[in-house]
Amino acid sequence: MSLNQIRQKTIAKSLEFSGTALHTGEKVNLRCLPAGADTGIIFRRVDLENKPEIKAEPYNVVSTRRCTSIGLKEDARVTVHTIEHFMAALWGSDIDNILVEIDNAETPVADGSALTYMELIKEAGIKELPEERFIKRIEEPIWAKKADMYLVILPYEGFKVTYTLVYDHPVIGTQFFEYEENNDFFLKEIAPARTFGFEREVKALHRRGLALGGSLDNAVLIGDDKTVNPLRFENEFVRHKILDIIGDMFLNGYIYGHIIAVKSGHQLHVELAKKISDSIIKR
Ligand SMILES: [Zn+2]
Question: How far is the centre of ligand 1, averaged over its atoms, from the C-alpha of 85 (Å)?
Answer without folding.
Answer: 6
